[in-house]
Model the fold of this input.
Amino acid sequence: MAKIKRRGQAGQAKNYLTRTQAVKKLQLSLPDFRKLCIWKGIYPREPRNKKKVSKSATASTTFYYTKDVQYLLHEPLLQKFREQKVLEKKISRALGRGDVTDASRLERSAARPDKTGKPRYTLHHVIRERYPTFADALRDLDDCLSMLFLFANLPSTSAVPAKMIARCERLCLEFEHYLIVSHGLRKSFLSIKGIYYQANIQGEDILWLVPYKFNQRIVGDVDFRIMGTFVEFYMTLLGFVNYRLYTSIGLKYPPKFDQLKDDQGAELGAFALEGVNIATNGAKAAVGGDAEYGPDPMLQAAVDKLVRQLKEEPGVESEVIVDAEEVPSDALDKFEPVAPGGDVLPQPSHSSSDPAELFAGMTFFLSRETPRQPLEFILRAFGCKRIGWDSVLGEGSFTTDESDPAITHQIVDRPVVQAAMSSEGDGEDNQTSQKVDPNQRYPGRVYVQPQWVWDCVNNDELKSPELYAPGAPLPPHLSPFVKTAQGQYDPTLPLEVQETEAETLDADLAEVDEAEGDEVDNDMDVESGNDDSEEEAAAELSEEEEDEEDEEDEEDEEEPATLQRQRELEAEIAGKAVASKTVDAKTKAKLEARKALEKKTREEAEDLERAKGMLSKKKRKLFEQMQYTNNKKSAEDMKLRSKRRKMEKELAKKA
Amino acid sequence: MPILKPLAGNPNGPQQYKQPSRKGKKAWRKNVDVSDIEKGLDQVNEQIIVTGGVIAEKESEDLFMLDVVGDSALPKRFPKIVSKGLRADEIIAQRSAVPAVSMRKRPENKTTDGIIAAKRQRTNYVDQKELRRLKKVADGQHESTVAIIDADYDMWDTPADDPVAVEKFSFLSKVEKAKAPKTMHEQPLTLAANGKSMPAVPKPKGAHSYNPVFADYQDLLLEEGTKAVDAERKRLAAIDAEQAKMEAAARSAAEAEAAEARANLSEWEEDSEWDGFESGGEELSSKAKRPQRKTQVQRNKIKRRKEEERRVKLEAALKKKNAQVERIKQLAEEVALEHQAMEVEKIEMSDDSEDGNDVELRHRQLGKLRLPEKDLELVLPDELQDSLRLLKPEGNLLKDRYRSMLVRGKMEARRHNPFKKQAKTKITEKWTYKDFVLG
Done:
């Protein structure tokens, strides 16, 4: 007989510790233990059998690996926690004696490391341990940035001290400055929760969420002590990440911070970036450069050139004023269809590799109802140098004067006042009068709604501003983070790209049919009138009236059948054969192609059926079920595509 | 001067020396051991011979003397100090010509010199706010003790901090640093139903756009709508069940009460024989006719009936069994279908998304508390605006972040306890025996 083992001596009982056991082992208080676990990255675990682990009568709920806790015993922070505990005991004893001055003296001297010789601790070594390489740190930056941006936007309370908020804000702004200089921002998305940003830093995609301003409610079921612990850790992390990022592009860290400007709400403008060697504000150095930052003569020459260019720029601007009709920008020409609803022309894409050039050379003015912080950040990150805004939006703008002639684009988000609509056209008169009319437009300036900026950024090209004009119904704002699966309908792509072969052929044939139908209709007046009116009605349909369109769709499908019957009737009356319609070569080829395709699909289906026969019953059923769901999905996509095709056709017809 | 006496007698209690028993020869007087006493008497004799008396009876003065002269060898050894005296004595002996200031408190002067005396500052005063803070600190709720210092070096560029090997101490053995166990690098336990790790910031869907595509938005709206309707239905069902339960309980209670009342009634108010009522039960039973003997015909009939009954029963059982056999197939089919559905789900989960989602969570969670519910992240159709200015942000980011931490298994769910559990106090009136007044 094997040796009988005692319970709780080996296996799970030894591998796991309950939380109480861990706390006792480390001689810490529970909050301190929690803090340490968060900083060191020790997570609760789940044993396979809880009863085998805990010996107590009451059900324990949280378990940790024994080895983790054992390792925590070596943590230098543990000593600090214990010291803090000792201090707390001393203070509480002094208070208990009624010796308040003594208590405060103890507390004060503990807070001054120069008096006690015991330094306050930092989390540097913990960060080094948890993120052995910089890439590791970058990978965990999503959480860090979301948290810090959130705390930077919180109102200060007793739970969230103002100092912490200010610190978060500063770190976040420093990070934004890095993205501006390095042009690392890639995408941004306006969601109902907040604004998502995606940046690419050294090949790593980083996604974070920034709340809208002044919208944070503090709810009860959030533990601020725990959140504060995370924030402390992440603040240290982002500090070091910022240092590394700044030095990698040859900038000095921390950048110069102007408290006065910050108090006046300058935000990004409160920082002045300095090069490591020369004060080159915003000079772009090699991104991701090596550790060598000596005065490189080539770099110096480039910087000098850039500075000269910057100095010359006012001259360029004056030119802009002269012919304000054309916006001189680095934007490439756009190939626009001559008539609306024409073919979607492939646009010359802005070299997608260089987002630094998207808004370069433009001067923006933000009206006071627009969100300044995100707009400023995005515009700067995509190459815009001069952004002005209304003075109510804070300090640091390029100009607060709305009538500044240098402005090329103005971002407006207010409704068009109906009464003043008529005066919109004659901008010449309005320019002479000083008073700014609510609907006043400065000529030569592009007025757009804020979404334009986001859509431009996400599509890597300047969208046509007409679609985003003030008061115009905006096109939907799509999420740039949604991956479309194979064969799924994607509203951003042109129809030709995503259609299946069968669909294209069907559509072409339907067109031909329709053309023939028209011919037939010309013979029969009654029918044609009816058809026309139907088409007109269809043309008037807007996007929102989806249900009606569905019905329309069905009617459309029925149409060829009715036509066919009519043709047969006609033939009967005339006493001729049915196949009287002349088919030109093109149509014939298409018909043949369609037949071939049908045959091919049929063959494929047969093959599949045969292959299915080989499967076991269980697997076959599984396969069928999956096929069913896939078909359902693709049918939906097909429906969406056909809807779009129809709309495009209607638009073309209308033109 | 106190008389010093040597410690006399045995500190132990009186006992009979080596005479544990008084029985036998050992108890005889001649056999008693008196060697101790003899030894003592010898000592006394010796003292008398040597010193002329018993030492214990002598006066202290006869035995000791006070040395008031001092060591005669000292002046020879320290001639300087003895002749001049100690410097300390000299300093102490110094006296000021000015009389000492009296320490007695005196009343303040009644007249003034016109200068208002500066108010004495209590520099070591601790105000109430500070006191409150101190109390908090003593309670363990101190502010951050982490020093937040601007980063001033590249953490990832410097080599890992090894204890600097000094050549001088090369003979010392190297201190082995504790190695992190493998378990430290394990991913935290995610709470997603499919057990996959979740991203810190999930990629937003198109439906969450402030100006969404209609189809996406409709899908989300329908989904959330059905969810809300289901939840409401469940809530109503729970309320109904609760109500039914209460009603049943009330009914049964009422019945029990009624029964009790009846029982009481019968006990007290039943018509008794005393009142002249009689129950006829017993009489009837005694009058019952006894059964006649069964005839053979009757027996046969009964036998036949029983046979028939058995047959019918058997048939019914057989039928039931057959039905069950048929049902087995059906059940197996059902089970197979269920399995299949599960497998399909598994496959869909496995290939659909590489990440877990934070909507479908596993049943077992970490910690005692349930996860906070996710806020509804949906703008209702009547609030849907296509202008950024008019957007009403939905959801709570703070809660969202907190929940994300929990769902990713970084920590267990916790709720802030605003009030500590207090010790129960029982209030009683103070009394002593004196408070009682008799009569």
Notes: Residues 296-352 of chain B form the longest helix (57 residues).
